[in-house]
């Protein structure tokens, strides 16, 4: 490996080295490629490679942006013209993107060199990354455990220091879940902050958004500056920030009013180490001068039932479009059992059922938003169980009935903020006795990433995580 200090830098730091001509984009790219070659046989985080495309990017000349020369991975759900995108599905194993998505275009404009795609479960449906097509993506802290999902490949690659920052997306927790499982930072932005076009105006009924997972807070903030803003097809627009997000990093958050819970949304018992970590984080926040109190929003509907309907109907459309394109019915040679079962559930739902789920999502959103009337931030566990073991969720099983109850125990709270559209982040502040990371989830008011970035920056200074590295690490 040519650049031995590579792991000591975040993305902004690597770009600064390029600007100072202390290292070239080509040297950084070859370092990332060498690290992928060395580590990915253990992790299976990078499932599509286009190293030569990245080399050609550099040869043509990179844009002058905040991440010029920084190696980068796009999640295997987004399109980059001329490269394979499989969506984690057997049917699309050889699919080549005909054009570049808006978000991917903005990543390119930031100056990154995209050398591959990171692993996702089939269509991003699960909170683990174990597609039939590509196999399981393993957690660099313990290879017997999942890296989380659906941005599991991105989080594993960043945690293992293959690269400092990578694309991730979140429709029910898919940035925050793997960030927690792998011990990195994952911010889900406000609804409509970042673009989703040109092929769709919104995803999963407005629940989905794209951003990154990263080693540092400033990488997340700087990338948000590079990505945010509407496009011609945007159905609505997020509130404009008061100043560049990068300027919030290191800014005094003031005395915040923070509510917290160490319990599940559904009242189920959560892992005692995780509950203790939430209480310890509350004490840390109190010690930093914030006002902290224990309480949680009361919800008028069941978030799990709401998201199940919304996701099933969207999955049903995905399968239907594939059938129209192929001129035949889809079978489990094409898609996993879970995908087909979800589509079948959609076929049994009516338009009224879908509208009822959207109404329930709005009612949940209103309750969560009202909860923020007199608080600035809400703290809760990102995951309520430690990262699942590989194989605990089997999307090809003949009996899928155990998956929903497990998800209710594992990720009861992440989807609330997809429904409300509020920004939420997982911050790597704790760990289990066995050495697995524990992320703390902080949510802010709609449009208020600024407060979350200031708080994350304060926590990064108080309890640094950058130099905590997993056993499988470059």
UniProtKB/TrEMBL annotation:
<protein>
    <recommendedName>
        <fullName>Indoleacetamide hydrolase</fullName>
    </recommendedName>
</protein>
<dbReference type="InterPro" id="IPR023631">
    <property type="entry name" value="Amidase_dom"/>
</dbReference>
<dbReference type="GO" id="GO:0016787">
    <property type="term" value="F:hydrolase activity"/>
</dbReference>
<keyword id="KW-0378">Hydrolase</keyword>
<comment type="function">
    <text>Hydrolyzes indole-3-acetamide (IAM) into indole-3-acetic acid (IAA).</text>
</comment>
<dbReference type="Pfam" id="PF01425">
    <property type="entry name" value="Amidase"/>
</dbReference>
<dbReference type="InterPro" id="IPR020556">
    <property type="entry name" value="Amidase_CS"/>
</dbReference>
<comment type="similarity">
    <text>Belongs to the amidase family.</text>
</comment>
<dbReference type="InterPro" id="IPR000120">
    <property type="entry name" value="Amidase"/>
</dbReference>
<dbReference type="InterPro" id="IPR036928">
    <property type="entry name" value="AS_sf"/>
</dbReference>
<feature type="domain" description="Amidase">
    <location>
        <begin position="27"/>
        <end position="453"/>
    </location>
</feature>
């Amino acid at each position: 490996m040519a650049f031995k200090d590579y792991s000591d830098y975040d993305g902004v730091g690597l770009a600064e080295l390029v600007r100072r001509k202390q290292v070239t984009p080509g040297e950084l790219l070859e370092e990332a490629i060498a690290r992928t070659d060395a580590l990915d046989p253990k992790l299976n985080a990078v499932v599509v490679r286009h190293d030569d495309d990245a080399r050609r990017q550099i040869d043509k000349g990179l844009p002058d942006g905040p991440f010029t020369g920084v190696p980068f991975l796009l999640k295997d759900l987004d399109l980059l013209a001329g490269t394979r995108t499989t969506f984690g599905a057997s049917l699309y194993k050889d699919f080549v993107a005909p054009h570049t998505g808006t978000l991917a275009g903005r990543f390119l404009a930031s100056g990154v060199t995209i050398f591959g795609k990171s692993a996702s479960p089939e269509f991003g449906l699960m909170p683990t990354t174990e597609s039939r097509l590509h196999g399981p993506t393993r957690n660099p802290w313990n290879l017997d455990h999942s890296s989380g999902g659906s941005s599991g490949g991105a989080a594993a690659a960043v945690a293992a220091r293959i690269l400092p920052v990578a694309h991730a997306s979140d429709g029910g927790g898919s940035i925050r879940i793997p960030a927690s499982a792998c011990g990195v930072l994952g911010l889900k932005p406000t609804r409509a902050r970042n673009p989703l076009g040109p092929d769709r105006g919104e995803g999963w009924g407005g629940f989905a958004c794209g951003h990154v997972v990263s080693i540092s807070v400033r990488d997340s903030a700087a990338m948000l500056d590079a990505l945010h803003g509407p496009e011609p097809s945007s159905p609505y627009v997020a509130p404009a920030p008061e100043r560049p997000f990068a300027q919030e990093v290191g800014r005094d958050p003031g005395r915040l009013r923070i509510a917290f819970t160490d319990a599940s949304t559904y009242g189920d018992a959560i892992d005692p180490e995780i509950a203790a970590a939430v209480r310890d984080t509350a004490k840390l926040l109190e010690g930093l001068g914030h006002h902290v109190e224990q309480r949680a929003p009361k919800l008028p509907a069941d978030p799990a039932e709401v998201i199940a309907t919304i996701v099933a109907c969207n999955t049903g459309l995905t399968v239907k479009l594939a059938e129209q394109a192929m001129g035949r019915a889809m079978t489990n040679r094409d898609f996993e059992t879970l995908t087909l079962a979800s589509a079948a559930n959609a076929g049994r739902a009516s338009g009224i059922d879908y509208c009822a789920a959207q109404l329930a999502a709005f009612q949940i959103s209103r309750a969560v938003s009202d909860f923020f009337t007199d608080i600035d931030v809400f703290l809760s566990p990102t995951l309520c169980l430690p990262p699942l073991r590989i194989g605990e969720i089997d999307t090809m099983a003949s009996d899928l009935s155990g998956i929903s109850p497990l998800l209710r125990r594992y990720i009861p709270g992440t989807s609330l903020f997809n429904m409300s559209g509020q920004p939420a982040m997982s911050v790597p502040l704790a760990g289990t006795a066995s050495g697995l990371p524990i992320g703390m989830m902080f949510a802010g008011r709609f449009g208020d990433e600024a407060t979350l970035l200031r708080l994350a920056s304060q926590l990064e200074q108080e309890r640094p995580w950058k130099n905590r590295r997993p056993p499988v690490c470059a």
